[in-house]
Amino acid sequence: MNNIAIIGGGAAGLLAAVRLGRAGKNVTLFERGDRLGRKLSATGNGQGNITNLRMGAEYYHTDEPSLLARLLSRFGAEDTIAFFEALGGIFLPDARGRVYPAGRQASAVTDLLRRELARLKTDVRLSAQVTSLKREKNGFSLTSPSGSERFSSVLLAAGGCAAPNFGTDGSAFSLVKPLGHSVLPLSPVLVQLKCGADEVRGLKGIRADAALTVLSGGKPVYSVRGDVLFTESGLSGDAVFRASSYTEAGDTVTLDLLPDVSWERLSAALERGEGADCLLCVVNNGLGRFLYKKCEGDKCRLAALLKGFPVAVKGTLGFQYAQATRGGVPLSEVTEELESRLAPGLFFAGEILNVDGDCGGYNLQWAFTSAYTASEAILWR
């Protein structure tokens, strides 16, 4: 018996299936949904941000950063680009190092992988959720709607808890606990922040280019410049997603709403106008009226708010709106090849492991790096 089961038809599972199929291995891919790569097809706001040229372990959160660094050195951003360009298409970086297909269509990335699996005649099972995984002599017994089947190796790439509308609801963790694996506490990251309703009331839909700083216990722990969108319940936007990985309930987020304007230049501009009109062509009119009212017309306080608008963080919008999961199976429980130390022959890839990256292609790079590592080890078993 030398057949391989891959559980999960997302980014990690698809790359692994292609690599193993190309090597002539007998692969069966189990996907609980009715379509492969649903989450991959939505990545990068639908534009397909597959990796980032500014790659390194410092952009990730995990229990074993040194192991993560070694894995990224084996299969990094350049390797991901080369892999996908070999399948077809052209991939280009933007000014922040984020790499997209030239056509800026995430679904086309998924289609490249699907096309290759079709060419390889890979056994793909859709609407086939795996409900149990048992260790047996010389392999594993796996139960799905097709019944019970035996495999010599299993790659578990079924995702975490983020974005359950794409089929990643955390149920895969129940497969590994009976095998002795632990699961570190799970929480949503790359997600909108919830704030007190009164703090942002009336600002829904207003967008600003801001310098955002996260304060924990009054001390700055993370700063980022980017897009901030005010919502009915708090804050969204690119800068907020990036900061959410460093933010907890009880922290404070401060927004410099005019990061390119000095205090002196701002103060001079405010003195030229009367009432809320002093903010015309300074900030969005709705935001200006909100801040003017908040500081009761005191222009010194107004300038201070514009350069450091504080918002108390109450929490996040949860897994429903998150792009990634923090927590999962610890890296300390797997080998350098991402093979289980407790159930040899079981490999892991992607979000099910305790690795989450910053916003900007890092989580997809981890999916591809881990899939490459695990599939390479399976090839040599």
Summarize the structure.
The chain is an alpha+beta fold.
Q: Describe the main β-sheet briefly.
A: 6 strands, antiparallel, barrel
Number of helices: 11
Q: State the low-pLDDT regions, or none.
A: none
**Highest-level CATH class of the largest domain:** Alpha Beta
Amino- and carboxy-terminal Cα gap:
12 Å
CATH architecture of the largest domain: 3-Layer(bba) Sandwich
Percentage of residues in strands: 25-35%
How many β-strands, per DSSP? Answer: 21
- CATH topology of the largest domain, by name, is FAD/NAD(P)-binding domain
Helical residue percent band:
25-40%
- Residue-averaged pLDDT, rounded? 95
CATH superfamily of the largest domain, by name, is: FAD/NAD(P)-binding domain
Radius of gyration: 23 Å
| Assembly level | single chain
Plain-language structure description:
- A 6-stranded antiparallel beta barrel has the order 13-16-15-14-17-18.
- The protein starts with a strand and ends with a helix.
- The radius of gyration is 23 Å and the shape is elongated.
- Strand 14 and strand 15 form a beta hairpin.
- Helix content is 29%, strand content 27%.
- The protein has helices at 11-22, 65-74, 77-87, 106-120, 173-176, 197-200, 238-244, 263-271, 285-294, 299-307, 362-379, and strands at residues 3-7, 26-30, 51-52, 60-62, 91-93, 98-101, 123-125, 132-136, 139-144, 147-151, 153-156, 184-189, 193-195, 207-216, 219-230, 234-236, 252-256, 309-316, 324-328, 346-348, 355-357.
- The longest helix is centred in the C-terminal third of the chain and has 18 residues, at 362-379.
- The chain folds into 2 domains: 3-187 and 321-379, FAD/NAD(P)-binding domain (3-Layer(bba) Sandwich); 193-316, Translation factors (Elongation Factor Tu (Ef-tu), domain 3, Beta Barrel).
- The protein is of the alpha+beta class and 381 residues long.
- Helix 1 packs parallel to helix 4, helix 1 (11-22) runs parallel beside helix 11 (362-379) and helix 8 (263-271) packs across helix 10 (299-307).
- The chain has 11 helices and 21 strands.
- The model has no long low-confidence stretch (mean pLDDT 95).
